[in-house]
Design brief:
Elements lengths: L1 H17 L14 E13 L2 E2 L7 E11 L8 E8 L12 E6 L7 E5 L2 H46 L4 H21 L3 H28 L9 H8 L9 H31 L5 H30 L1 H9 L4 H4 L3 H31 L14
Antiparallel strand pairs: 1-3, 1-5, 2-3, 3-4, 5-6
């Protein structure tokens, strides 16, 4: 069944993307080619330690490079490598770089280090670790992750470019990702239904809270750092810019909420198996007790994830001693608070919601001897 569904969905994605047409953004660079090249000689080198930051070198290198990819593979050309504090990419003989050229590599520019091979190795280590320690479930988890990445890139993004409301596109993405991930890892069961339903409901609650608070605080995609580039895209496509921020919050929150929901549902399924005559109320209490232990660490994880991604901003704010009245009203800070707290609220709500659903979907094997109530 999974094979047939995967084939049908693949055909749908191919058709969905092949019919997507949109003009390039107004500020896109044209006529430029990017290839990978290796440094064969250093013709001139004026690098010297930065007077304020001696751990880095700054200056200019004149390099001879050999193109390693594309139509110009094997061609030698000379390029200047400008090494600055903010663009620090000093090269040695044998260093592989990403280069660009407008004239078929008669001349060229050094853009950055070539890093992809190391990233591929890291990805392979991740997959191997997941397979070795997770076994069959680890492989299924990787496939579910791959599916989520595919639908984000080849379904969610094209939906946005076609003019679909970002929140609706995010809802479709989260529902598909959650159902496929839960079902592939745990099969179709009451536990899966409870966990998936709790995840979907609470992810939407997190998105709804973010939308409401965003409207009250005048926060939207226009207040984010990427707004300028997105405006260029929106001018020539059906992209609805305003709510992309909240679509991102919905997708970002779904991962942590999914983790909490399946933890609660799995624990309650184990309790029901060990104590088949537990009443629904007793089972619910067990789920809530497990949830109280889980929610604190998971909320902490979510907040730290958002904080870690903006640690540079936190450091700048701290050092510049910005007045509190200015700090608390910064749009950039409001965005981070909105993302972190709305996602955490959805995560916390997933505990009682999933526990209630699981208790309802996992009835006692036989009537209990006495009625138990909440305490």
């Amino acid at each position: 069944m999974w094979g047939a569904l995967a084939l049908l969905f693949t055909v749908f994605l191919i058709l969905f993307n092949s019919t997507l047409e949109y003009p390039a953004p107004a500020d896109i660079q044209t006529g430029n080619r990017y290839e990978k090249a290796e440094v064969t000689k250093i013709l001139n080198d004026s690098l010297a330690p930065d007077p304020d930051f001696p751990e880095i070198n700054i200056g200019v290198q004149e390099l001879e490079l050999r193109v390693l990819t594309g139509e110009s593979k094997g061609k030698l050309f000379i390029a200047n490598n400008f090494v600055t504090r903010l663009d620090n990419k000093s090269a040695e003989v044998g260093t592989k770089m990403v280069v660009s050229s407008y004239d078929g590599f008669v001349s060229g520019l050094v853009m950055d280090y070539s890093r992809e091979n190391f990233l591929y190795v890291l990805g392979l280590i991740f997959v191997a670790t997941l397979a070795v320690f997770g076994g069959v479930k680890g492989v299924k988890a990787f496939l579910a992750l791959a599916f989520t990445l595919v639908i984000v890139i080849f379904m969610f993004v094209p939906m946005l470019l076609r003019g679909v409301e970002p929140v609706i596109a995010a809802v479709v993405t989260v529902v598909l990702s959650t159902v496929v991930t839960m079902a592939s890892l745990n099969g179709w069961s009451r536990k899966t239904i409870a966990a998936a339903s709790g995840c979907i409901i609470c992810t939407f609650l997190a998105g709804g809270i973010a939308l409401a608070i965003g409207a009250l605080t005048h926060v939207s995609t226009y207040t984010t750092a990427e707004a300028e580039h997105l405006i260029f895209i929106a001018q020539r496509t059906g992209l609805k810019l305003h709510d992309i921020l909240f679509a991102g919050i919905i997708i970002a929150s779904s991962g942590a909420v999914m983790d909490t929901s399946i933890s609660i549902a799995s624990a309650m399924a184990e309790v029901r198996e060990l104590e088949p005559d537990f009443s629904a109320a007793a089972l619910l209490r067990s789920g809530l007790n497990v949830g109280r232990d889980v929610m604190g660490t998971m909320a902490n994880t979510l907040i730290l994830a958002f904080t870690g991604s903006s640690i540079n901003t936190v450091l700048i704010i701290f050092m510049y001693q910005m007045p509190y009245i200015r700090l608390i009203n910064l749009s950039s800070l409001a965005v981070e608070i909105l993302c972190g707290l709305s996602g955490s609220i959805g995560l916390i709500l997933s505990v009682p919601v999933t526990a209630a659903l699981a208790a309802r979907l996992m009835p006692p094997a036989s009537p209990p001897l006495r009625q138990e109530f909440f305490s």
